[in-house]
Design brief:
Helices cover 39% and strands 18% of the residues. The protein is of the alpha/beta class and 486 residues long.
Length: 486
């Protein structure tokens, strides 16, 4: 099932994309082939990397783009578009090629994570939806991964739907959270759509409904004996909540009911102190297997602090600060023209120049390689032109340019390289089946566990990953800058 089985979101675009497309359609005698890059300029939260997510939804969108008669009538009513253009939209199908990093790839600023090669009109009108998916899911996946790393091996579950910005943000956010490393979600629709493990505990309203806390716990244990996680902070955690939980666990054992999953959840207060005391009380009562789950406005910093204070916690439920990436809620990916094909079919580079150096684009069709040392660690990413990299030279001595320090002489030795972009759509048709969300999440874990330096994974002052260029590509870019500046 895709997003198009329920609704058509082809009109999800900025108006200027349609006005530009209408202008191109009216002025150009024949369709020009162009290339656009999707890239971002800054890692969220000043981190050392980001995680690419949202590619699957982009491919679904491109495969399903259709303009209905209702859409055409609405556009006609704006009195901005010529009839030949509206007729073109009526029969619209995306027939371009898409090159992209595998979803779940660890990514860095200023490298093309997606390149679209298509007719000019087609390439123009897909911009907003591409950026919407990349910006949202990459942001949430990156934030989720920071939180998962802070939890230091303890499971983290997404509890964020009720704080998400809307339904789509909750569902696709849960997908991105799983890519980032969480173990499950409380959002049922996301579990159904993406085969994400779903879970939950009990509500304060359950405890408040019954005449007393003990009765509430007993009733819950009767209904869910094999998943008996009791919420102990409705009234008083240490004086009533934990003691009543211990009493219920004891009654269950006396009745011969051995719960497969039992424990308590803390949702407020000093979580480090309360979890330590609760652990002591549970252990003294003989319930050493009872888990302690905590929630309540958690993120990587609060989790790190709780654990550094000796918090005795088995798993975390994280909501608003993960599903909204509260600390830095903008990813900032952009979609920029990088090449235009002439009448001869040869693509010629285009560059955007700005007084803000960070906004100068990398022109032309290009390739991106991840370069590894003999130990399999990623030492840099290398941008080249279409000629690619000399694999043999990487082992014997490959000279490259650091664009931030071009005066220095550098070379790779005893290295290998992997091309990151691959064609995922040809002529508007996918070239490979979709990966499962769990496989994407496993790919993220593998990279962070084996390829990406621990120094890049620090929360504070992480090592900056090198983005280098081949001498030929760097010379081409500098030539274009000089020519356009002149």
């Amino acid at each position: 099932m895709t997003i198009y089985d329920k609704r058509n979101i082809s009109m999800m675009m900025d108006l200027y994309e349609l006005t530009m497309a209408n202008g191109y359609f009216s002025q150009e005698q024949q369709a020009s082939r162009v290339a656009f890059d999707v890239f971002f300029r800054k890692n969220p939260d000043d981190g050392g990397f980001a995680i690419f997510a949202g590619l699957e939804q982009i491919l679904e969108y491109l495969e399903g783009m259709r303009f209905s008669e209702e859409d055409i009538a609405y556009l006609r009513g704006l009195n901005m578009f010529r009839e030949p253009f509206l007729s073109y939209l009526r029969n619209f199908r995306f027939t371009g090629d898409v090159y992209a990093f595998p979803e779940g790839t660890i990514i860095y600023p200023d490298e093309p994570i997606i390149t679209v090669v298509a007719d000019l009109v087609q390439a123009q009108i897909i911009e907003t939806e591409l950026l919407t998916q990349v910006n949202h899911q990459s942001l949430i996946a990156t934030k989720a991964n920071r939180i998962v790393r802070a939890a230091a091996g303890r499971p983290v579950s997404d509890f964020g739907a009720r704080r998400a910005h809307n339904n789509d943000a909750a569902i696709y956010g849960a997908r991105a959270c799983l890519i980032g490393g969480v173990s499950g979600t409380a959002t049922v629709s996301a579990g159904q759509a993406f085969d994400i493990p779903v879970g939950g505990t009990m509500a304060h309203s359950w405890v408040m409904y019954y005449q007393d806390e003990l009765t509430a716990f007993r009733k819950f244990a009767e209904v869910y004996p094999d998943n008996c996680i009791l919420l102990v902070d409705t009234y008083d955690v240490l004086r009533s909540g934990v003691p009543n939980a211990i009493r219920v666990f004891g009654e269950m054992e006396a009745a011969g009911v051995r719960s497969k999953n039992r424990g308590i959840r803390l949702d407020s207060g000093d979580l480090a102190y309360l979890s330590r005391e609760a652990r002591r009380m549970l252990d003294e009562a003989g319930f050493t297997d009872a888990k302690i789950v905590v929630s309540n406005s958690l993120d990587e910093y609060t989790i790190t602090s709780i654990l550094e204070q000796g918090g005795r916690i088995d798993s975390f439920g994280v909501g608003e600060r993960m599903i909204t990436a509260r600390s830095e809620p903008v990813f900032g990916a952009v979609y920029k023209l990088c090449a235009v094909a002439g009448p001869d079919g040869v693509f010629r580079p285009r560059i955007k120049i700005s007084e803000t150096v960070a906004k100068i684009t990398n022109p032309g069709l290009k390739r991106v390689y991840r370069v590894y040392n003999a130990d399999g660690k990623a030492v840099a990413d290398l941008i080249t032109g279409q000629e690619g990299v000399d694999e043999a030279a990487l082992r014997t001595g490959y000279r490259f340019v650091d664009p931030e320090r071009p005066w220095k002489k550098h070379e790779f030795r005893d290295c290998t390289a992997k091309s990151l972009q691959r064609r995922v759509m040809a002529g508007g048709v996918r070239t490979e089946p979709a990966a499962s969300v769990r496989d994407i999440a496993a790919y993220v874990r593998a990279q962070l566990g084996h390829e990406i330096w621990e120094e890049e994974q620090r929360f504070e002052n992480p090592h900056k990953h090198y983005i280098d260029m081949s001498p030929e590509y760097y010379a081409m870019k500098m030539s274009m800058l000089e020519e356009n500046h002149g």
